[in-house]
Amino acid sequence: MMIPENALSVTTLTTYIRAVFEQDDRLQDVWVQGEVSNFRRASSGHLYFTLKDGKAAVRCVVWKSTAMRLHTLPKEGDSVLAHGYVSVYEPAGDYQLYADKVRPVGIGDLYAQFERLKAKLDAEGLFDPLRKRPLPAFPHRIGVVTSPEAAAFQDVLNVLRRRFPLAEVVLSPTLVQGADAPPQIVRALERLNRRDDIEVILVCRGGGSIEDLWAFNDEMVARAVAASRLPVISGVGHEVDFTICDFVADERAPTPSAAAEMLTPDIAELRAGVAWLGDQLRESFARQVRERREDLNASARALRGVSPAARVRIFRQRLDDWNARLTGAQRARLALLRERVGARGQALTAASPTAILARGYALVTDAVTGARITSASQDAPRLIVQFHDGVIRANVEKEE
């Protein structure tokens, strides 16, 4: 196909449009009134936000040098007057208001509605911390209220698979933006509350402008969250975004991913904790076994000391002691008696006739009658004379 000679490149076209804008005096000195949305302060110090009304929106840029001269920075929901010039940001092909003055007009319409509903529900006690319920420590089945096409839903699934794959996710699908979103969100909450197997509900969607998140500022949605039979954690928008749903929920998380992290334990930490508890249990069990064994040994020793067998052994030992003492006493007694017998034997031996005869004496008896001859006057013709070493017989020849 032939390219026409008058065809323009994208760069040429955007450069031309920019030149048209910059040649229009009205666009180079303009005041614009609108409500601040998507306010962001970059690390460079420049301010970026959107000015909108009920039908249209325009992007705004405030350079750092101008931002440093502002008395107050615009906030989300503020109604402001911005002065500056309109030009084209060529890399994106977007037209923008480059503001050099930003003056507050008052709180924007949506923000005012937000504050009125917040004050109303707060007065009814729906934000009371005492009505907040704790989230389950180990949820097995989690109900999620969001759009199945939302990136926030995939973020939640990724966090849950990584942290706690044991949990099952039950999606209750709904729109999360637009006029039809609030009744769908309410029905999604009711579906989960009718189930008996759901333990907690996560309401989530990604970040956006105040109008993008407006479905979660709806009074009907807020009351449905407050009336939920199950505890609800709200993970709507980014960290700087707050919705009425955040205030009535049992727990608020800065992002959907953070809500998934708050809702589940880390399975790696659980494994480490279980391993540590196992070590502690084994150590405690080993210590208990040692202590019980020591107690058992002490009891065994105590039982041995009072058992009948021990008493029998003690009595046997005492009997042996008494027997030894008795035997010793008997031996001593016998030795003493032997000494006495010996002494008396020696005395008897010394006093015996044989010993007397050995000293030169003789025993004379009548050989006929056997009568002892103790005097020469006794008449005995035949005598028996006994010496210590023998006996002789003698006849009496003459009496003197």
CATH class of the largest domain: Alpha Beta
CATH architecture of the largest domain: 3-Layer(aba) Sandwich
Number of strands: 13
Radius of gyration: 63 Å
Outline the low-pLDDT stretches: none
CATH topology of the largest domain: Rossmann fold
User: What sort of overall outline do the alpha carbons produce when their principal axes are compared?
Assistant: rod-shaped
Question: What is the percentage of strand-forming residues?
Answer: 15-25%
Number of helices: 12
Major sheet attributes: 5 strands, mixed, barrel
Helical content stands at 40-55%
Structural class: alpha/beta
Termini gap: 204 Å
Would you mind describing this structure in some detail?
The protein has 400 residues and is α/β, with parallel strands linked by helices. Helices cover 44% and strands 23% of the residues. The chain is built from twelve helices and 13 strands. Strands 1-2-3-5-4 form a five-stranded mixed beta barrel. A five-stranded parallel β-sheet has the order 7-6-8-9-10. A hairpin with a 2-residue loop joins strand 12 and strand 13. The longest helix is centred in the last third of the chain and has 44 residues. The chain is rod-shaped and about 210 Å long. The chain starts with 9 loop residues before the first helix and ends in a 5-residue tail after the last strand. 23% of the residues are buried.
